[in-house]
From TrEMBL:
It is an enzyme of class 2 (transferase). The keyword Repeat does not apply. Its EC number is 2.7.4.6. ATP binds at residues 11, 59, 87, 93, 104, 114. Transmembrane segments: none annotated. Belongs to the NDK family. It comes from Arxiozyma heterogenica. Residues 3-140 form the Nucleoside diphosphate kinase-like domain. Gene3D superfamilies: Nucleoside diphosphate kinase-like domain. The lineage of its organism: Eukaryota, Fungi, Dikarya, Ascomycota, Saccharomycotina. One of its GO terms (biological process) is CTP biosynthetic process. This is Nucleoside diphosphate kinase.
């Protein structure tokens, strides 16, 4: 089994709308293993590090204000191809372009309220996980279901 990890965050709109359990359930039913989970109030500093490539773009101040407006559920998921498949499960960044059956396709309407964030590459995942979690907050454990999920 691959030990690839990804960072998934339920944004303030998803938390406020009570979608956390639905989103966790989709990743669990897919067969991915939850290895980190916490409720966080993101600081402006954390968001500036997380969205470093966007800090100087015109949309960043509004995005940072939104992301710090309420709690975020930060998660680390583990499994084979979890970065790529996590993005597929989330759907297109703009919910209007997301297929039904994806998280954004089922729960999102506006680009600025697209419910979740997901790492877009293994490198980004490693960087984002390190930003949001201390090493001791990630749990290494064996899932009894792994033999039924992986060959």
């Amino acid at each position: 089994m691959s030990e690839e990890r990804t960072f998934i965050a339920v944004k303030p709109d998803g938390v406020q709308r009570g979608l956390v359990s639905d989103i966790i359930g989709r990743f669990e039913r897919r067969g991915y293993k939850l290895v980190g989970l916490k409720l966080v109030q993101a600081t402006k500093e954390l968001l500036a590090q997380h969205y470093a490539e966007h800090v100087n773009k015109p949309f960043y101040p509004k995005m940072a204000q939104f992301m710090s407006s309420g709690p975020i559920v930060a998660m680390c998921w583990e499994g084979k191809n979890v970065v790529k498949q996590g993005r597929v499960m989330l759907g297109a960044t703009n919910p209007a372009d997301s297929a039904p059956g994806t998280i954004r396709g089922d729960f999102g309407i506006d680009l600025g309220r697209n419910v979740c964030h997901g790492s877009d590459s293994v490198e980004s995942a490693n960087r984002e996980i390190a930003l949001w979690f201390k090493p001791e907050e990630l749990i290494n454990w064996e899932s009894n279901q792994a033999k039924w999920i992986y060959e």
